[in-house]
Amino acid sequence: MVKMIATDLDGTLLSPLGEVSERNAQAIRNAQAADIEVVVATGRSYQSAFRPIQKAGLNCPIICLNGANMYDLNGTFKNGIVMDKAVVKEIHSVVSKEDAYFELYTNQGVFSMDRSNFMDVLVNIMLSAHPGTTREQIEKRAEQRFQEEEFIFTEDFSEVFNNPEINVFKALAFSLEADGLERIKGPFRNRTDLIVTSSGFDNAEFNHPEAQKGVALKLLADERGIDLADVMAIGDNFNDVSMLKVVGRGVAMGNAEAGVKKTCSYVTDTNEQDGVAKAIEEIL
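^ that's the sequence the OP posted. Answer follows.
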């Protein structure tokens, strides 16, 4: 019997334009009415994750930054898993050599390269991922992201590395070159001091090895006295695998990466066709 549902956001609960459909929202409300706790588990920061959930009239605990941060129903910060600054410097050095786009998610906001660079990268990436979407729609979505995140634009990340009051929770690199992403990920594979994953074909995400969605979800389920066998998780990409593997019912989105689908016993519809709602309706 499912007692808890964990859902990813981008490519899963959210549409390509970053919104929760009414059918998805209603399915979540129906699950909550049936005493099933619904949890958001995302690579986004809390602020960026909270806004579309709030806009849809929903209220859920949020596991964010791939498990590095957790917030309760009231938006109270529960825990933070910090990356080693020396490791973050290594990542930045490799990313810089590939001339890829770079972000650091910290306790003082998101440190990013200049805004024009960000816009160019994001628009190009979204056009590649969603060729049926117009450039105007994508630029509007990109502008929206500046409102969702607390961006601090910098050309010198040493101010982050050298400030002891800044804690880094996640590093993120974007590139449209698959070879470039592989060269970025390569030096960090099979390391014990960090975990490398991705939330899309165009990025590489780096976290402390304990900052994984599956680890955070287990902590939350244990706190609630819920066995992971009674948890359903829904996701579409490789940063979801850690939770899809540990739960009793792992559900891949219809638009999920092939490797993600292989880890799941169930596949639902795409995020454009209310796949989350259909997965919830089935268990209800």
